[in-house]
């Protein structure tokens, strides 16, 4: 903006004379002259809506009208932008408008509110950094590291931050996110929390000494990972498969580069489609990594709104990802908790991710049979992403006013006059009264909720890979040994006892042990003889010692009710329970184990509120017996000796999520009194289970000899106690 400055005195004028003195030089007359200088002026448009290109066009039109002195009041342009352009929600129709300067513009909302809109930003990020560097940044953002972009272009900083967070879909980044960090706020980079921040390249020397920040140079195409940062990558073979899929898309000529007669035509999609194909690869990577996650969702409440948690240990155990640092960190992230909260409910509107997750198993089988199907499936998914951003197949020719080239460098610039706020407000009020968006969107139907597809059950994912370590004969020996113990045939049980202990090194045998022991509990208590008690405790200790503290296979959770059921009578009025002999295992000190076990039992009771127990369930099962449900991660493989009738009953029984979906569907039609009754029933169920688990935690966490501070250190020296708490180890 031009500014006219009128100096009040000449530059070389002497200071005022001291009072009483005569000036040696006659004062010069005041000289008035004008100097034209330029002061910066910035036009800012603030909005929660994500239509950056439209905002840029509107601001450009305002500048063009100003610089070209077009006969349109600026108040009209500003008022029309704020009051006359009403943007429909996602799924709404295309909006065509003009802000009053002879322009024609169109604004298209996406179809789905959950899918990010990227245009070509993801493709641009891969062009700037390359496949390997972007994969490293992707793993960094998924494991909550600090990421800093720097570039000479503010626009590219914004696009890079947008692209990296879009690759996280179906997750949403919910840490510090500042695409353009002002220079005076550079100390924000010292925050201990994860962030994605962009700074101008002029500040790169000031941020070069960050010891825990991963820096990406968009202009130079490089990234820098400090030595002290532990950055896990995607597990194999997922990492290699993702790299190959990205190479197939971004470097299609690579496959035929060594041909003697390479094809004349190579696939060259438009940048906007390349962008969607890249995103499709990352969506498929998440679908493969999270296969079976819905089987590990635990339902705690249905009403008034569903409360769902994720059984992390069961997921890692069933997917054989216990030693995968990347998967463990992702499941611990804040945005994974948000993911479970948003996508866990079984009755809600579904999007592209839900369909991909449920169908990925079948797609993967087809790709294994025919590798050409991989590119076809990626393109089909990319087309859905493209349609989400461009649902209107008819193109609209926009007319955007732009200033002539070099207009900003003219010597004589018009002054930018002050805008009249009253006039702008009147135009806004008139526009709001004239354009009633609600009446226009009355026919627009929102996305309807439906039952979320569960996909393939987690217990069936590795069927083709599992190697059965225990033969049916060994499991039969285990069953016979336990039967001999409870039939008080101690000598026969001791003959096969070493073989049983060796068999307990496998997961299947430990789960079979829990199942067999539960068959011998009638009611809430099972009184045993001394020798029976010793053998049962040794089996329980051996099973717990061969399991980890995470209890990824559910052995400790299955033994938990048995520990308070099996007991023996020491003398009159004194009864010893099995939990007094299994307190030394690390799993009882794991808080996540107690939470997961508590939530599973709450889910079982909540399910029982809405689904009466089947008559086919054996009456021998006590109240502490854990009923396996199709969605429970404890739903292990059916053992060969199990009753066929009970297996059929379990298959026909709906899962907890299916029951919750039906209850959520009917909730609006239930009268208020019934709603209050259901809410009260669920609350009482939750509280009663909490009291029950408080007693269990006291039993297993508080030693009997509480006064001895060296209890844990001295227990190994107590031979009599060790005979019951430490299982004998046999070499196979």
From TrEMBL:
InterPro entries: cDENN_dom, dDENN_dom, DENN_C, DENN_Domain_GEFs, SBF1/SBF2, Tripartite_DENN
Lineage per the UniProt record: Eukaryota, Metazoa, Ecdysozoa, Arthropoda, Hexapoda
Residue span, UDENN domain: 1-350
Region of interest: Disordered: 1-20
A GO biological-process term: regulation of Rab protein signal transduction
One of the record's GO molecular function terms: guanyl-nucleotide exchange factor activity
Top-level taxon of the source organism: Eukaryota
Protein name: UDENN domain-containing protein
PROSITE patterns, A to Z: DENN
Organism from which the protein derives: Photinus pyralis (Common eastern firefly)
GO cellular component: a single term: cytoplasmic vesicle
């Amino acid at each position: 903006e031009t500014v006219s400055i009128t100096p009040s005195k000449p530059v070389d004028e002497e200071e005022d004379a001291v009072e009483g003195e005569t000036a040696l030089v006659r004062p010069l007359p005041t000289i008035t002259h004008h100097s034209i200088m330029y002061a910066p002026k910035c036009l800012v448009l603030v909005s929660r809506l994500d239509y950056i290109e439209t905002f840029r066009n509107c601001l450009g039109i305002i500048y063009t009208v100003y610089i070209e002195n077009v006969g349109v009041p600026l108040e009209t342009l500003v008022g029309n932008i704020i009051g006359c352009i009403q943007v429909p929600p996602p799924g709404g129709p295309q909006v065509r408008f003009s802000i009053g300067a002879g322009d024609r513009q169109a604004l298209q909302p996406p179809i789905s509110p959950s899918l990010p809109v990227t245009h070509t930003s993801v493709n641009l990020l891969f062009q700037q950094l390359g496949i390997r560097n972007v994969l490293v940044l992707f793993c960094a953002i998924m494991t909550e590291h600090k990421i800093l972009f720097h570039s000479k272009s503010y626009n590219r900083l914004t696009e890079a931050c947008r692209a990296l967070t879009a690759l996280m879909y179906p997750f949403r980044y919910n840490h510090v996110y500042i695409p353009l960090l002002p220079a005076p706020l550079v100390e924000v980079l010292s925050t201990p929390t994860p962030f994605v921040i962009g700074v101008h390249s002029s500040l790169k020397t000031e941020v070069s000494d960050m010891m825990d920040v991963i820096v990406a140079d968009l202009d130079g195409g490089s990234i820098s990972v400090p030595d002290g940062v532990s950055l896990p990558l995607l597990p194999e073979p997922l990492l290699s498969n993702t790299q190959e899929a990205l190479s197939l898309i971004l470097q299609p000529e690579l496959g035929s580069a060594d041909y003697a007669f390479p094809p004349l035509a190579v696939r060259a999609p438009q940048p906007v489609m390349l962008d969607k194909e890249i995103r499709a690869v990352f969506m498929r990577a998440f679908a493969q990594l999270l296969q079976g996650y819905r089987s590990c969702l635990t339902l705690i409440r249905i009403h008034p709104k569903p409360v769902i948690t994720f059984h992390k240990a069961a997921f890692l155990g069933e997917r054989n990802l216990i030693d995968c640092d990347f998967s463990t960190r992702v499941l611990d992230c804040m945005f994974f908790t948000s993911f479970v909260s948003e996508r866990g409910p079984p009755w809600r509107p579904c999007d592209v991710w839900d369909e991909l997750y449920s169908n990925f198993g079948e797609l993967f089988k087809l790709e294994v049979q025919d590798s050409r199907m991989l590119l076809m499936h990626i393109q089909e998914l990319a087309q859905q992403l493209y349609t989400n951003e461009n649902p209107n197949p008819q193109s609209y020719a926009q007319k955007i006013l732009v200033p002539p080239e070099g207009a900003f460098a003219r010597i004589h610039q018009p002054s930018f006059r002050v805008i009249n706020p009253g006039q702008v407000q009147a135009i806004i009020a008139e526009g709001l009264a004239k354009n009633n968006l609600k009446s226009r969107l009355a026919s627009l139907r929102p996305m309807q909720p439906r039952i979320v597809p569960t996909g393939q059950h987690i217990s069936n994912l590795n069927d083709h890979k599992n190697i059965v370590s225990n033969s049916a004969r060994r499991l039969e020996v285990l069953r016979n040994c336990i039967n001999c113990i409870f039939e008080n045939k101690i000598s026969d049980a001791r003959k096969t006892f070493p073989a049983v202990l060796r068999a307990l090194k496998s997961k299947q045998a430990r789960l079979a042990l829990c199942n067999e022991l539960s068959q011998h509990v009638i009611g809430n208590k099972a009184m045993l003889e001394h020798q029976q008690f010793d053998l049962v405790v040794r089996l329980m200790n051996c099973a717990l010692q061969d399991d980890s503290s995470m209890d990824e296979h559910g052995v400790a959770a299955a033994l938990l009710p048995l520990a308070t059921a099996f007991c023996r009578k020491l003398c009159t009025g004194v009864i010893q329970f099995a939990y007094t002999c299994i307190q030394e295992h690390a799993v009882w000190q794991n808080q996540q184990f107690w939470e997961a076990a508590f939530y599973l039992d709450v889910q079982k009771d909540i399910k029982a509120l809405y689904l009466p127990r089947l008559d086919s369930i054996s009456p021998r099962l006590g109240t502490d017996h854990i009923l396996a449900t199709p969605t429970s991660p404890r739903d292990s493989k059916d053992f060969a000796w199990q009753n066929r009738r009970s297996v059929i009953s379990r298959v026909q029984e709906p899962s907890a999520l299916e029951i919750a979906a039906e209850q959520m569907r009917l909730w609006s039609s239930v009268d208020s009194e019934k709603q209050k009754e259901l809410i009260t029933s669920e609350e009482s169920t939750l509280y009663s289970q909490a009291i029950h688990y408080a007693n269990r935690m006291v039993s297993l966490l508080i030693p009997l000899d509480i006064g001895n501070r060296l209890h844990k250190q001295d227990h190994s020296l107590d031979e009599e106690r060790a005979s019951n708490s430490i299982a004998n180890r046999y070499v196979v």
